[in-house]
Amino acid sequence: MGVGWEWDETLFSGAAAFYRRGRLPYAPGLADVLAEVLHLDGRGRLIDLGCGPGTVALRLVGHFGEVVGVDPDAGMLAEAARGAAELEVTGKVRWVRARAEELPAGLGDFDVATLAQSFHWMDRERVAAAVRGMLRPGGVLVHISDLKGESRPTDGLPCPPVPHAAVDALVRRYLGPVRRAGRGLLPRGTPTGEAAVLTGAGFAGPYRHVVPGGQAMVRTRDDVVAGVFSMSFSAPHLFGARLDAFETELRRLLREVSPSGRFSARRPGTEVFVWPRGSD
Ligand SMILES: C[S@@+](CC[C@H](N)C(=O)[O-])C[C@H]1O[C@@H](n2cnc3c(N)ncnc32)[C@H](O)[C@@H]1O
Question: Ligand 1 atom 13: the closest Cα is on which residue?
Answer without folding.
Answer: 50
